[in-house]
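Could you help me review a protein record that somebody else here produced? This is what I was given.
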Amino acid sequence: RKRFAAHTPARLACMLARTPEQNLRYPLLLVHGLFSSSRTWKKTVQVFQQDYDLRYGGEVSQKGFVADTAGAADFYTWNFSDSRNLSYRQQASELAEGIAHILEKNK
């Protein structure tokens, strides 16, 4: 049984491709919860790649891409600089910087 049964390939195909490298119109950013890390998404990354043929753009932080990829991608994972001691305002600021990196990569 697929973990994301509600998101069938036909449903994902409705989100028209932007570039030859992408299957989704807009890239997804998977953000982990409090006291966690981007490793939370390890299984999800595998499912998106294997079952839905989505292109993983790598891990992103406020400093940019940890593992840079060439060109645009369908989804990315997020890692805060500190998952325990940042205020919500600091987390929002870091996310804004990371999103800017993703937008630049997916122009």
Observations:
- The longest strand covers residues 56-61.
- The radius of gyration is 14 Å.
- Residues 1-5 have pLDDT under 50 and may be disordered.
